[in-house]
Amino acid sequence: MSVLDNWNQWKDFLGDRLNQAKQQGMSQETINQLAEQVGDYLSQQVDPKNEQQRVLSDLWSVASQEEQQAIANVMVKLVQNNGTH
């Protein structure tokens, strides 16, 4: 089972990566830019595995660059308190 198959596991995975990035001194701006790059990659390369991912994919596909940045930033905020660290 892939981490992408389950929404809660996906959020925990992202939360772990976010915590690691912060521990290594990555700035919030850099984290947000990476989140946008991940969103671009997922929208182009990965088929959504659950309803939540499908909604995000659909929103991403119609969003402007500025709106995609906002979606990425909100996802970062969503997972800030997730993860195992």
Keywords for this entry:
0% strand, 85 residues, 73% helix, Cytochrome Bc1 Complex, Chain D, domain 2, 4 helices, single chain
Mind explaining what this structure looks like?
It is built from 4 helices and no strands. Helix 2 (28-45) crosses helix 4. The radius of gyration is 12 Å and the shape is globular. The model has no long low-confidence stretch (mean pLDDT 89). It has one domain (7-79): Protein of unknown function DUF3243 (Cytochrome Bc1 Complex, Chain D, domain 2, Orthogonal Bundle), CATH 1.10.760.20. It has 85 residues and is mainly alpha-helical. The longest helix has 18 residues, at 28-45. It comes from Heyndrickxia sporothermodurans.
CATH topology assignment: Cytochrome Bc1 Complex, Chain D, domain 2
Average pLDDT taken over every residue: 89
What is the number of independent domains? 1
- The helix/strand class is mainly alpha
Span of the ends, CA to CA: 22 Å
Supply Rg.
12 Å
Number of helices: 4
Query: CATH class, please?
Result: Mainly Alpha
Instruction: Tell me the β content.
Output: under 5%
List how many beta strands DSSP finds.
Answer: 0
CATH architecture: Orthogonal Bundle
Shape: globular
Outline the low-pLDDT stretches: none
Element-by-element helix/strand order = HHHH
Q: Mind describing the biggest β-sheet?
A: none
